[in-house]
Write a structure and sequence with these properties.
With about 475 residues, the chain is an alpha/beta fold. It has helices at about 15-25, 45-50, 55-75, 90-115, 190-200, 220-235, 325-340, 370-375, 390-395, 425-435, 440-445, 455-465; strands at about 5-10, 30-35, 115-120, 120-125, 130-135, 140-150, 155, 170, 185, 205-210, 240, 245-250, 255-260, 265-270, 270-275, 280, 315, 355, 360-365, 380-385, 400-410, 415-420. It has 12 helices and 22 strands. Strands 1, 2, 3, 4, 5, 6 and 17 form a 7-stranded mixed beta sheet that branches. Helix 6 (about 220-235) links the parallel strand 10 (about 205-210) and strand 11 (about 240). The longest helix is centred in the N-terminal third of the chain and has 26 residues, at about 90-115. It is globular, with a radius of gyration of 24 Å. About 45% of the residues are buried.
Length: about 475
């Protein structure tokens, strides 16, 4: 095997493996370096997303949702279900099977597309060389015309709550509990904290979420965030804002959490504590001093609009660069970079990246929030359609939430769409497509939607922007 490649990708997560496959499909001799190993010492592809992130967490969320429905919602439909119980080992086994199927599938895709898989830890040297050290310490060096960095991210650790096996865990540890904690603490009311807290709350944990900020989901449209907070509290999640954790102590099998809030020093006793305060880029040890690649003060790699670093021919994508830490964003950047290396001229539209929080109800959005538009002095119109007015939502017992559409007063072009509902993650794709093609609220309003569907609420919100809603009160208001 030649040690020279057209493209070497470092990292086999959603950014890396997609970039490698696309590069190979475009006729480029491609290799992908991955250090992740199984207990048996075999290379494991898929990165955080497939192994300990997006996929396993959604498997647990789905199982816990079905369990909660069986316990509390079936009766609404006239279905009696007695002695409903959760088998934690079986739930975890199902989750692991899904993970194994997907990660092994990436390996099959590599073989099918001619991607060379290299097992080890990659380091970029000067002259676009990649040094790879395997599990036994053996070092090999490869030359590349182009390098794509896709090393991803890892959980942030905080000094007041150091990770302690069995008691204080990060997002990875929270996916491996062998029983339902009676009392569970979560530090951070962001995507990670809310999703993982939701899993165990549905299964019976008393969950307390400690959030240092004074606002809930500050990056989400605040009308949606306030609705979400109300619904989460109704479900039993005890969410404490302006609660800054100052220390932890483990005594008699319990985690004692010290924190400060508006009332002063407080304490919380829990059986398990999840630290879910965010993630940081994995760049430590990745770059030799002569690589020429520059990092910012937080460890992110500097790139231009096309994900090229300060060194021509070396790119970086996904969680390791600026912007949202999202698997789909990483994948699209990986495709863009591979195509640019092949001589094409693609771009990623960063204005239409959807965000989703997979709680129940789900929260999904694309584009700008009302708060951002106000801060920028943009004149806009608002259309809101509550799911309580949807016949399909009533039939599905899924009437919580709303669709909110923001459109330019001058052009009617859609500027942002925000949805809170059990199926928001699927509905938001309609808004992404509309915005990608520069649609106006009138365009959506003139589009025929099937009846009865939850999607009709998107249609109704679009009509409401211009004061023409049929089934809900028009909420058109000029800003």
């Amino acid at each position: 095997m030649s040690d020279k490649f057209d493209v070497i990708v470092i990292g086999a997560g959603p950014g890396g493996y997609v970039a490698a496959i696309k590069a190979a499909q475009l006729g480029l001799k491609t290799a992908c370096v991955e250090k992740w190993t199984s207990d048996a010492g075999k290379v494991v592809l898929g990165g955080t997303c497939l192994n300990v992130g997006c996929i396993p967490s959604k498997a647990l969320l789905e199982t816990s949702h079905k369990y909660e429905d069986a316990k509390h919602e079936f009766d609404t439909h006239g279905i009696s279900a007695s002695d409903v119980a959760i088998d934690i080992p079986k739930m975890m086994g199902r989750k692991d099977t899904i993970v194994n199927n997907l990660t092994s599938g990436v390996g099959m895709l590599f073989k099918a597309n001619g991607v060379t898989s290299i097992h080890g830890t990659g380091k970029i040297l000067g002259g676009k060389k990649v040094e790879v050290t395997d599990a036994k310490g053996k070092v090999a060096t490869y030359d590349a015309d182009n390098i794509i960095i896709a090393t991803g991210s890892k959980p942030i650790e905080i000094p007041p709550a150091p990770i302690t096996d069995g008691y204080i865990v990060d997002s990875t540890g929270a996916l491996e509990f062998d029983e339902v904690p009676k009392r569970l603490g979560v530090i951070g009311a962001g995507v990670i904290g809310l999703e993982l807290g939701s899993v165990w709350a549905r299964l019976g944990s008393e969950v307390t979420v400690l959030e240092a900020q004074d606002s809930f989901l500050s990056g989400v449209d605040q009308q949606i965030a306030k609705d979400a907070l109300k619904q989460f509290k109704k479900q039993g999640l005890d969410i404490k804002l302006k609660a800054l954790v100052t220390g932890t102590d483990i005594k008699r099998g319990l985690v004692n959490v010290s924190y400060k809030d508006a009332k002063g020093a407080q304490e919380l006793k829990v059986d398990k504590l999840i630290v879910g305060v965010g993630r940081m880029p994995v760049t430590e040890g990745l770059l030799s001093p002569d690589s020429g690649i520059n990092l910012d003060e937080r460890g992110f790699i500097f790139v231009d609009d096309h994900c090229q670093t300060d060194v021509p021919g070396i790119y970086a994508v996904g969680d390791v660069v600026r912007g949202a830490m999202l698997a789909h964003k990483a994948s699209e950047e990986g495709v863009m970079v591979a195509e640019r290396i092949a001589g094409q001229k693609p771009q990623v539209n960063y204005d239409t990246i959807p965000g989703v929080i997979y709680t129940n109800p789900e929260i999904a959005w694309v584009g700008q929030t009302e708060e951002q538009l106000k801060a920028d002095g943009v004149e806009y119109e608002v259309g809101v359609a509550p799911f309580a007015a949807s016949g399909r939502a009533m039939a599905a017992n899924s009437t919580a939430g709303m669709v909110k559409i923001l459109a330019s007063t001058e052009t009617d072009r859609i500027l942002g769409v925000h949805i809170i509902n059990e199926h928001a993650s699927e509905l938001i794709a309609q808004a992404v497509i509309a915005m990608e093609f520069g649609a106006s609220s009138e365009d959506l309003g003139l589009t025929m939607f099937a009846h009865p569907t939850l999607s009709e609420s998107v249609h109704e919100a679009a009509l409401a922007v211009t004061g023409h809603a049929i089934h809900v009160a028009n909420r058109k208001k000029k800003k």
